[in-house]
Amino acid sequence: MLILKLLAFVLPLGLDSFAVTAAIGASGRLPARVRWRISVLFLVFEAGMPLIGVALGAPLAHAIGDTADYVAAAAVIAIGAWMLLHGDSDDEEEKAGRLVSAHGVALLGLGISISLDELAIGFGLGLTHLPLIPVILAIGVQAFAAAQLGLHLGNRIAERYREAAERLAGIVLIALGVFLATQRLLA
User: In the prediction, which pLDDT does 136 show?
Assistant: First the structure.
């Protein structure tokens, strides 16, 4: 059960990472150093943002008490709905173009923008009762792997499939949030 919960939590984030990096890969063949830089950026931000979410969410959870579990489930559902409904490929392509050429503060800003869903996931992480370190490691591994795969396959994959991957990620996160809220109600 623990492995299934971990996969349900991490795989939607991988689909989102894949969709963004596939848009980058669609822009043409990138030098190996650029692919590595982008993949490491995804790893650092997508594995780091849940830690910030946990750090911010723990005091909030303590302050609001029993309703914290429902707020966390709502946050997971909200990020899933945003991923499902936003589906703006123009925005992804614009972000992709900026990511390839960004340096310094611009790279930091883009790193934050690609990992906001992981920040929201961090708020709900305590609700899952999953061990923090394995979740963060799994998120880092999936971010790196999805980035490499997306960068390599991006120019071969039709845009509609990239958008479908992001929508599927949203649906899975909504289902996970509903499951977590239902599990709390029945406990």
Answer: 92
Token pair 């707020």 is found at: 71
Cα(131)–Cα(18) distance, rounded to whole angstroms?
Answer: 25
Confidence of residue 107 (pLDDT cuts 50, 70, 90): low
pTM of the model: 0.72
Cα-based angle 107, 108, 114 (whole degrees, multiple of 5): 85
